[in-house]
Amino acid sequence: MRVTSEFWVSAVTRRVFNAGGYAAVVRRGATEAGAIFVMVRSRDGTCNLFGPASQTSYDEAGPQERRFTVVAEGDDAAIAARLEKESRFDPDLWLLEIEADAKLVEEIVPLTTP
Q1: Where do the domains of the chain lie, and which CATH numbers do they carry?
Q2: pLDDT tens digits, the chain, 114 residues: what are they?
Q3: Are β-strands 36-41 and 22-27 bridged in parallel, bridged antiparallel, or unpaired?
Q4: I need a surface site. Which of 40, 42, 60, 93 has the fewest CB within 10 A?
Q5: Exposed/middle/buried for 49, CB within 10 Å: 0-12, 13-18, 19+?
């Protein structure tokens, strides 16, 4: 069974802070099962927005693990435009913003290519 969205966001936030990074819950969604989007801000000012991977990317061996895919890249305006589109589709989404080293980001946000 997968943990709730609220629990996952809380755990990731603590993990980022413990590793010396920064994390903030920008938008709180549905406690139990709101979609989670993670915005990773790099030190050069660019951003990547990761969203939930499609259900077809999960297999029977690991259905509990959250997987992500890149949904937007660029500056704040590009990210804001994509988030606006996503929030019209799912008003209960979560947005977690993090600044951390690349290794920690890879661990926190396991990617699936579409």
Answers
A1: 5-57+65-108 (3.40.1530.20)
A2: 578 899 999 999 999 999 999 999 999 998 887 899 999 998 777 899 999 987 654 455 555 578 898 999 988 888 999 999 998 988 899 999 999 888 888 888 887 765
A3: unpaired
A4: 60
A5: buried
